Protein: HD domain-containing protein
Amino acid sequence: MKKIKELTVDETFEMYVLIKNADVRLAKNGKKFIAFTFQDTSGSIDGKFWDASEDEITRFKAGLVVALNGKREVYQGNPQVKILHLRLTRPDEPSDPGLYMEKAPVKREEMEEEFNQTLFEITNAHWNRIVRFLLNKYQKEFFDFPAAKRNHHAFSGGLAFHTLTMLRLGKSITKEYPQINASLLYAGIILHDLGKVLELTGAAATEYTVAGNLIGHLVLVDEEITKACLELKISEFDEDVVVLRHMVLAHHGLLEYGSPVRPRIMEAEILHQIDNIDASMQMMTSAVKNAEPGTYTERIFGMDNRSFYVPKDV
Amino acid sequence: MKKIKELTVDETFEMYVLIKNADVRLAKNGKKFIAFTFQDTSGSIDGKFWDASEDEITRFKAGLVVALNGKREVYQGNPQVKILHLRLTRPDEPSDPGLYMEKAPVKREEMEEEFNQTLFEITNAHWNRIVRFLLNKYQKEFFDFPAAKRNHHAFSGGLAFHTLTMLRLGKSITKEYPQINASLLYAGIILHDLGKVLELTGAAATEYTVAGNLIGHLVLVDEEITKACLELKISEFDEDVVVLRHMVLAHHGLLEYGSPVRPRIMEAEILHQIDNIDASMQMMTSAVKNAEPGTYTERIFGMDNRSFYVPKDV
Amino acid sequence: MKKIKELTVDETFEMYVLIKNADVRLAKNGKKFIAFTFQDTSGSIDGKFWDASEDEITRFKAGLVVALNGKREVYQGNPQVKILHLRLTRPDEPSDPGLYMEKAPVKREEMEEEFNQTLFEITNAHWNRIVRFLLNKYQKEFFDFPAAKRNHHAFSGGLAFHTLTMLRLGKSITKEYPQINASLLYAGIILHDLGKVLELTGAAATEYTVAGNLIGHLVLVDEEITKACLELKISEFDEDVVVLRHMVLAHHGLLEYGSPVRPRIMEAEILHQIDNIDASMQMMTSAVKNAEPGTYTERIFGMDNRSFYVPKDV
Amino acid sequence: MKKIKELTVDETFEMYVLIKNADVRLAKNGKKFIAFTFQDTSGSIDGKFWDASEDEITRFKAGLVVALNGKREVYQGNPQVKILHLRLTRPDEPSDPGLYMEKAPVKREEMEEEFNQTLFEITNAHWNRIVRFLLNKYQKEFFDFPAAKRNHHAFSGGLAFHTLTMLRLGKSITKEYPQINASLLYAGIILHDLGKVLELTGAAATEYTVAGNLIGHLVLVDEEITKACLELKISEFDEDVVVLRHMVLAHHGLLEYGSPVRPRIMEAEILHQIDNIDASMQMMTSAVKNAEPGTYTERIFGMDNRSFYVPKDV
Amino acid sequence: MKKIKELTVDETFEMYVLIKNADVRLAKNGKKFIAFTFQDTSGSIDGKFWDASEDEITRFKAGLVVALNGKREVYQGNPQVKILHLRLTRPDEPSDPGLYMEKAPVKREEMEEEFNQTLFEITNAHWNRIVRFLLNKYQKEFFDFPAAKRNHHAFSGGLAFHTLTMLRLGKSITKEYPQINASLLYAGIILHDLGKVLELTGAAATEYTVAGNLIGHLVLVDEEITKACLELKISEFDEDVVVLRHMVLAHHGLLEYGSPVRPRIMEAEILHQIDNIDASMQMMTSAVKNAEPGTYTERIFGMDNRSFYVPKDV
Amino acid sequence: MKKIKELTVDETFEMYVLIKNADVRLAKNGKKFIAFTFQDTSGSIDGKFWDASEDEITRFKAGLVVALNGKREVYQGNPQVKILHLRLTRPDEPSDPGLYMEKAPVKREEMEEEFNQTLFEITNAHWNRIVRFLLNKYQKEFFDFPAAKRNHHAFSGGLAFHTLTMLRLGKSITKEYPQINASLLYAGIILHDLGKVLELTGAAATEYTVAGNLIGHLVLVDEEITKACLELKISEFDEDVVVLRHMVLAHHGLLEYGSPVRPRIMEAEILHQIDNIDASMQMMTSAVKNAEPGTYTERIFGMDNRSFYVPKDV
Structure:
């Protein structure tokens, strides 16, 4: 069966897709319609369901898998689907939303293994125990959550995958600069975005929680470290713990980006720069994948709204 | 006995003062001298002690009360003292540094009483218990610490006095706008700067702690609320607790000023504006007090480096 | 009779409303329609009048009261009215536009009384005479005009009400800080936005005048003070007059906000901060009133485009 | 007799100079000294007068002409004079301060003549009358004042000269763009900086007045136009008068530079740009004059602190 | 025959026009339509061609001249044409696109003559030879290209016309300030925007080239000077050549506007300011031409999005 | 023999050092003195030579090696040397300035070898030839020049060492992200700062050249690529060459930092980020080396003036 991104213009198709969004609106003729976003592992596409009955509105909710019969069209330059027929899946058909969500390109087991190996390289006892404690506490969410609602790594497992890639970069960089405290850098990398498991609602239909909006993931993970210290009977005012909290609080680099303090230790600055590299690589790669050589990508919001050129013949 | 600020130019005097700073430096002639700042409750003044012996350097340390015989002069537009004679106080002379530090203009007992009264107006049980817990935990420091190293309320008891004045303003404003949640505003005001007892070293020779520099008082008090919840068995994810944490985290108003989130609830915005009013009133008043009518004050760093005009005949 | 804001979705109704705007546009089918905004004291709502004849276009003008038979719907998330029938009011029906405009929550007489009382507290003779002269000169407009075209206090009487609330705040703050020159602060508050009676066209269908756009209300009121001095035979270079002009010119606080000078006297800074408090309280309150507890308000343009959270269960 | 700028390093000299500044300070040895700035038409130089007696302090005041016997030296890279002997001028010696101040390079009579000619080209009756009225009212000051305390045209007659050069540029530009309203542009140019006669204290020992600091020359001249209208019985709300006031208020171009409104009519934008050209030409020319070809000028504060290169062999 | 800008609302007409843009889109009914922009020497207008067949889509391409029978309407405040009939021109009808493009208001021959005269005023041999070489190399494009894709001088010949007007301004300014090196200023003016012949694709259907986007016209003309030096056997490190390269690289004035260096020689600063004057005069004049006296122009993107007022009765 | 950085306070010593700077100034007593900066491979220190005769001023010039007998003191918190005796080196003593300059920590031969190996990984023929051509043309300077006048890698060989470290980082990052065009990244890295051999004067007494100040190293290397293309008969408008020029022009990342274009291809963005990492690692490491654990470094100008904390016991 074809995937959403493989359809050509004017192609008629039938496929199973996940309803990502389902907003009910009023048409100019006074009747209701549903503005759908459908999703599979290749990407997503919008489509309008006109003259929706109350029954249909109740039936087709976000988070459900449906059988979609449609035609792939273009509307104002964007892909869209003309819905020919839509129904819920039958018992003998696939209905697990997880099958239709984008996923991290590395298997969870491999990621877990690599994190576990890294834990042995965190030789400071306080950092090691805090990291183990929190990875354990949020194990399920860590490997399930995206790294963001949109922008970069906005897919299931994106949080762990983003963290893992940063760890790999961190190891390369540490090799080049032995003056870096590797234990501290690795501990900081593993924890830096863990607050996102409290900031966001999860992998499907990702939204910000109230705590996410009012406190933010930087402080949320700092509070988790504080509570871990209480439980592990580590003084949170030991200098190594203060320094670890600084690592996570400072990782956005600038006050304007929401860090309450700018990096004031070497490893905190490097953590911030590694984060930048992986986030921008992920955003640029996604954009470049959707553009032909010799053309420009769409503007990337998270990169100051720049569009990038994809060179040809090089 | 006269106070420092009452001396006239070229006046010779003898008085007891506190050594606020004592920096040892090298003169152009290769000999050491001590650059003193002396202080009493009226203010402070600089003076150089030339050709200091190793013995004198050891004897005259910051934090000690001394008997100073000097002449009040002016150097490059600033007051300074020419030191004629200097000695440590004798057993029968006053030697308590507390006698020579600026103090809040309201007595501690009165302030305590007013805070206690306010606690009854915080009707939300979580907020009430958290505020009581933390006021209790840091009672001594709260009434002793300054509100800042320099700039505004940089005197003993300044933290409590700044908080109290804000409470009074908060009550007036709440009267004008009944839509404000008074409990929340008062709880937020009381806690907003409490992290300074961890950010600063104390009332005398005030410096930033490592945690103050690397974490900052906004997050430090947020962590205290988190720990209080654990001890008081309040869920820190109850919405009222989230909202209280937001109050303290957002009170600098702008990300550029170190808040990890901007105010997103009405009371948080008002807390920020009340803080502004009291801080700027205190800075302007200090500056205006030292300027003659018809002249301009010194530039005030904390107010975008503006100097203010003191009108005459109005 | 119900008010606009009391209608429920899909409710059919008949009511008298004021035409606030009536823009004629061309539909996709080549026929003209009128895009109406209807208004009563509870708020406003949009509605389209399709296939409008030239006669209807001439008849239904902004500023008239009409009898509207319609159905309350939702279009792209915003309330709108489907117009079933529309006609001008008959002689025996209410037709005074003033009946359908939002109003200040305090009666004009009460406001006048309170301003008059305050005049006795302005003890400097120049300030007192200038304020009396200008309040007298623009008495009608002062109690009729809004404080802005949109954003805060955008209703009939909004200018006087905004000024009055600021006066009340000013009195509370002066009580806390006796070093403030109360006469000056009150005179400055009363005059600070009076230039809006020249900047705007009035309470109904409020627009900017040419002088409003090219000169602005800060300088317009400064010019009024200058002319008042000529008429009252007060030298405009007396220091107290200079200081009063500074109060009104500096009240936007920052050059970027249109003040030609930043506050350089203590009372000017405080005037600016009081203005901030009342303007933001009014904007936040309007927004919060339209949002359910547990949700976020619309973004507020005048507050750096932030949306605010309305806590629940607190 | 040589001029200040013609002296070579280590040259001993005797000349008449004007005392521009005379600040009394305290030396490290506890004795007073006078920090002088001496001036003649070629420029100025600093010099310290050590061990000054009270009598000497009283005798040598700013604004007096003195006979100076000194040696031209260099101190920390800057020219300075070692004072060998200093005395007041005798009755038979020159003592008019005006002889020692920098002057505009065009004679006052020529400037007056050129302004008079231009008045005939201002064909709008309101503008013509207002400009004549104000030029007449401030005639003496207009031809005497500098255009600024420091930065550009900071010399006697600088205000009129700056205005005249702008008029000449304005005429050239109007020839290129006939769509410009020449009357308006010329009226705007003549009035744009006239408020400086109220903002500054005069040509010698130039300081800001209180009105200059608290109101600023843009609004000061706007007020003058307002008062002129009252006296000339011109309505200040006639559109041409509004537009003229806009010209002077907007001429700093950006709110950040102190204009309460940005240019909103074509001629106001061009007035701003002409002002820029003449101000920057004057600043660059002064700086370049003091630098050798092949070297860089000092940093120019008024041009974003840039230093300029003076090319050689071109 | 009438021109586009001369049509009145609801007027039916027939005229020859150039297809400037022809975008194919999908209507809500699922059928394709062509969104046209038609152009003649007076300006341009949009119009939609509904239910376009594949044949029509192929036939009506941008860059072709067509015979248009339509009705001039208004849609959402903007002029638009309702297309009644559309056909390609017949052999006996005009079909040269150049006949329908806006043109510089000065004839090419006159411009060439004026540039040639100016070359004699560039007395430095290096500058003279480089300018001649490059004007010769890109002669055709220089007189054909617009000065920008949109904003100012966006018409055929706009580049040469913009350059010529700047030269005229440059000559007036040089007369006022003889300290300016006229040779250098004129050489800089002629070359400053010449890189646009490589940055843009040409006069019709103007787009940015890849080199335009990735390198920009400032560096592109700098490279041309470098190559010219190689061919003319002039050392590119001679100071006069360095200075000329600086002129073109610095002419945007600020780093934020894409200059890799800010102006550091007097003539470079003046070149930048002359460029500002002509660009803004052209943008303001275009906007003002389309607005009635007593109204405001559309917002002008290139002038910080300001709209300008067109005074009446002045 | 001890090195400069190994001296303790008040230690008397004799050593050979290089005169880095020798500024002649006038003391308050009217006599000349020389303000020296002495340097060896461990760092530098200042010292004043009082009462310098004309002969001594002529003898002790920057760039010479001298025998210094002095005492290591502290002046206003900074290390300085009290000069007891100073003389030029004798024929039998070391006099090669190169022996006293800081050097890259990797040997030139090793660096050359690593660059040569990398050339084989640049598989695009144009890029390969251009890089080889320019490395060859500026071979001597590339391995001799510093990467900056001050800030980071300000030592002999710093340019090549900075480039080499970036290459190593580039290779690690490319391994993590195979979507990066490695050839392009490596070519861009090698050339990105090569313009510094024209921007700066060399390794000793490093200053900016006129071309460095007026054109800057980004455009200077772009011009070198342009000229290389002419000599190698490669069309500079081939897309791969355009892209390579973009790499060097965009590597400062932001217009405000002097790039005429922001990165618009993926590899250009990554080049910029790698540059950031190595520059900041070098600046932080230098600063941290001079600070004790538990203290803060000096403020680092190139890192937004932050000071960094050096944790202890971690």
The mean pLDDT of chain E is 92. The longest helix of chain E spans residues 266-289. The longest strand of chain E covers residues 12-26.
